[in-house]
Amino acid sequence: MSRQHQRSTENKNKVEKRHRQSEQRRERNQSRKSAVRTAVTRTRRAIAAGDLDAAVRSGVNAASALDKAASKGVIHPNNAARRKSRLMKALAKAAAASAKG
After folding, report:
1. Which residue, among 50, 61, 39, 36, has the nearest Cα to 90 in the 3D structure?
2. How far apart are alpha carbons 54 and 64 in whole angstroms?
3. Which of 49, 62, 66, 101 is deepest in the core (most CB within 10 A)?
4. Distance between the two ends of the chain, CA-based, in angstroms?
């Protein structure tokens, strides 16, 4: 076996391993992103329905899921902060509206 052929085989193995790793990472990230989206959607639905207790509970879960996704590198930390801020702002607005009227 020539040295050049041996080198190309080594590279092929490295490429295949890297591909396997990236696929595993993509699947893991995809499920984490899905969990975040679900948590945020539940909070928004609870706010829209006017169920403040459920909205607060799911809001805490959504904030936790966003923080976890940001710490794992699934989403950018600023993205998580922005989404949490918007959720909490909507929650505060709903709480003020329910207290008012």
Report:
1. 50
2. 15
3. 62
4. 83
Domain count, the chain: 1
Distance between CA atoms of residues 48 and 36, nearest Å? 18
Domain with 52 in it = 3-100
> Structure pTM?
0.82
For the segment 3-28, what is each residue's pLDDT rounded down to a tens digit? 666 677 888 999 999 999 999 999 99
Rounded to an integer, what distance in angstroms lies between the CA atom of residue 16 and that of residue 81? 36
Backbone angles phi, psi at 76, to 5 degrees: -70, 140
**Contact assessment for residue 64 and residue 89, using Cβ atoms and an 8 Å cutoff:** no
In contact, 65 and 35? CB cutoff 8 Å: yes
Domain with residue 37: its CATH number is 1.20.58.110
